[in-house]
Specification:
This protein has 390 residues and is mainly beta. It is 10% helix and 29% strand. The chain contains 4 helices and 12 strands. The strands form 3 sheets. Strands 1, 2, 3, 8, 9, 10, 11 and 12 form an 8-stranded antiparallel beta sheet that branches. It has a two-stranded antiparallel sheet with strand order 4-7. Strands 5-6 form a two-stranded antiparallel sheet. Strand 10 and strand 11 form a beta hairpin. The longest helix has 18 residues, at 318-335. The protein is flat and about 95 Å long. The N and C termini lie far apart (76 Å).
Length: 390
């Protein structure tokens, strides 16, 4: 009489599982083995990473925080007053332009009648100068993190010489005011360590079969026999079948080291270029909501770009002057602490806003035409109908 193989605990998970050979055809029924729940370390242990001078705050699996830039070895250029601009006004739009914008607005609405456009009579047009001040600060920030990859014979350079500092590593900056990032491997930080996930074995227990190499037969639910009493032909009466995920081995290739057993561990430097932008729009008494103006462009009346800008001077609207002083001060204080400011730019746009009053069927109504795009806002359009979408 053939004996049933003894199911031992999960053994060495090298190239195959010695405790559980694949099930042979005609073998007697098996009992379910004890569950082996192996997940491995969720993150590399801190002892896996060396102490590197200048990179003591670097952590694994995450950024070690933004690194403050060193003090410049030469005096930073001082901001200079921007160019003078005396013409702060633009012509008002014509009545034909206002009527054409109103017509396009009504035609874009499925429930708006064109009668107010065709029959309405414009009785008044008031132009409003609405200014938008914009400050952009283009800065470079740097952060580091420990990284790893399967070891395939890559060069190992740790301890050969001291690594360069985080801000000494050259990086090619993109065009000013365009977001970008670059990841650079820090020289002289690469070393080889045993994989922490598989403990240097190259394989990990299969989670689908709990590392035993076989699973309960889904046809007979582990009974070995069908409901008719006949032997189950899917598992040959054993009640269990080879695991399809590990092909009966009980282990699978380690996902961390890809079966190489060792990892190349090194520090990555992440260089991030960011364009930080803030707007200030002068709210006028026209009645048009300021939020509408964020969606349109205006005519640029003033532009100043340099390493550090000087707040706008001599502008006729005191609200813009105060906003410029506040934003310039806030940007230079906020971004100079944890990053390096490369360039600043300030602009002033004049966004045209025209309040149009017209009469239709004896009543007065208003709408607004605004922006270079001649957008229209008419909250109380007088000729709408109820539409039903079928």
């Amino acid at each position: 009489m053939e004996s049933t193989p003894i199911l031992s605990g999960y053994g060495s998970y090298g190239t195959a599982n010695p405790g559980y050979a694949p099930i042979a055809e005609g073998s007697p029924a098996m009992f379910a083995p004890p569950v082996c729940d192996f997940h491995g370390p969720s993150a590399p242990p801190a002892s896996m990473f060396d102490t590197v001078p200048g990179y003591e705050g670097t952590v694994a699996g995450g950024e070690g925080g933004y690194l403050p830039p060193p003090m410049p070895s030469y005096p930073a250029p001082q901001p200079q007053p921007g160019p003078a601009q005396s013409n702060w006004n633009i012509p008002s739009i014509t009545e034909d332009t206002a009527r054409e914008a109103f017509s396009q607005y009504a035609s874009s609405k499925c429930c708006y009648s064109s009668a107010p456009v065709k029959d309405g009579v414009i009785t008044n047009m008031e132009a409003y100068n609405t200014y938008r001040y914009r400050l952009e600060t283009f800065n470079e920030s740097r952060t580091t993190e420990w990284s790893q990859q399967p070891y395939n014979g890559q060069p190992v350079d740790a301890y050969t010489q001291s690594p360069p500092g985080p801000w000494d590593i050259p990086a090619k900056a993109p065009t000013f005011f365009q977001d970008d990032k670059q990841v650079i491997k820090v020289p002289n930080t690469s070393s080889v360590k045993n994989c922490h996930t598989c403990l240097g074995m190259g394989r990990t227990p299969c989670n689908e079969c709990a590392g035993v190499g076989n699973k309960i037969c889904w046809v007979c639910n582990g009974a070995g026999n069908r409901s008719s009493g006949d032997r189950c032909h899917h598992c040959q009466g054993r009640g269990r079948v080879n695991c399809s995920h590990c092909h009966g081995q009980g282990s699978r290739e380690c996902k961390t080291c890809k079966g190489k057993r060792q990892l190349l561990v090194f520090i990555n430097l992440k260089v991030i270029w960011t364009n930080n932008l803030d707007d200030y729009i002068v709210e006028q008494s026209s009645g048009l909501h300021v939020v509408n103006l964020s969606k349109v462009s205006g005519q640029e009346m003033f532009r100043d770009a340099q390493y550090m800008v000087y707040p706008v001077m001599g502008f006729p609207d005191s609200n813009v002057v105060r906003a410029a002083e506040r934003l310039v001060r806030e940007h230079q204080a906020r971004f100079s602490q944890t990053s390096r400011i490369l360039q600043q730019r300030q602009t002033i746009e004049l966004i045209p806003v025209t309040k149009v009053t017209y009469k239709w069927k004896g009543d007065s109504h208003i709408y607004f035409v605004y922006g270079n795009e001649f957008k229209v806002s008419a909250d109380n359009y007088p000729a709408t109908c109820c539409c039903t979408v079928m």
